[in-house]
Please model this.
Amino acid sequence: MTQDSAAPSGSDLRDLFEEYAQVYRFTTEALPHAAELLPDVIERAGLGAHMELLDLACGTGALEVKMQGLGILGDVTGLDFSESMLTQARLGCPEARFRRADLTHPAATWGVTGPFDAVACILGLNVVPDPRHVMQGAVELLAPGGVFVEATPHAGSDPRLVWARHLVMAAELGRSEAEEMAYFGPALVRIIKLSQMASQVQHFPTQAEILARHADAGLKVEYLGSTYADQATLVVSRKE
Ligand SMILES: C[S@@+](CC[C@H](N)C(=O)[O-])C[C@H]1O[C@@H](n2cnc3c(N)ncnc32)[C@H](O)[C@@H]1O
Model:
C-alpha cells in the first residue's frame, strides 16, 4: 500500500481495488451508476442477449448485474486485475464469466479469443496507465462491425455532482437525504479515499482526446454524449 502523498504504482493501485471491492460494489447501486450510467451504456450501444460481450475492467460486475436484472444477459465475459472485484462480480452475476487479466499486458494474454460483437469499458480507461493500449486490445478482439462503448470521467469531472444527482433521484423516489446518507455514507467515505488515491494515476480526457483515441484505434464514432450526472463522456464507436 502506498502513502497518500506518493503516486501509487500499478501494483499499489491493484492493492487499492482489492481492498475496496466490497464497498465499491455497494456504491455501484447508487442511482447515477445503476439507474443512469448503465442504462445509458446499454441503450446507446444496443447491448443485449443476442451479442457476445467483453467487459474490460469489469470491477464488481455492475454491468452484468444490470443486464441480468433486465433479462438481457447473453454470453458475457468480464476481465479485471483484482481478484476481490471478480469475487464480488461472480457473487452478483453467476451466469457471466469473469477472468483475471491485467489490461496493461498484451491482449493475447487476457485469456479470451473473440471475436466479440461488443466490447465495453466503463469507468476503466481513466485508471489504466495507457488507454490507447487497452483500446488496441479491444479492437483486436472485436469482430468487424463490432461495437466499442466507453464511459470515462471527463476533464474537470466532480464526484460531488454525482452524489448530488443521486440525492435528486432518491428524492423522486421519496427517499430522504438522511436515509441515503445513513445507507451509502460510510461506503462513500471509503470510496472518496480510494478515488483520491487513484486520482494520482488517473487521466481525465477532453472529448477531443477521446475522439482522437477512437480514430487512431480505427473506430468510427457513432455516438458521443454525456452521462453519470454529466460527469462522464459516453462514446459508442464501431470497428469498420
Ligand atoms: C472504477 S472501477 C470500474 C468498474 C466497473 N466497470 C464499473 O463500472 O463499476 C475500475 C476497475 O478497473 C480495474 N483495473 C484497473 N487497472 C486495471 C488493469 N491494469 N487491468 C485490469 N483491470 C484494471 C480495477 O480493478 C477496477 O475494478
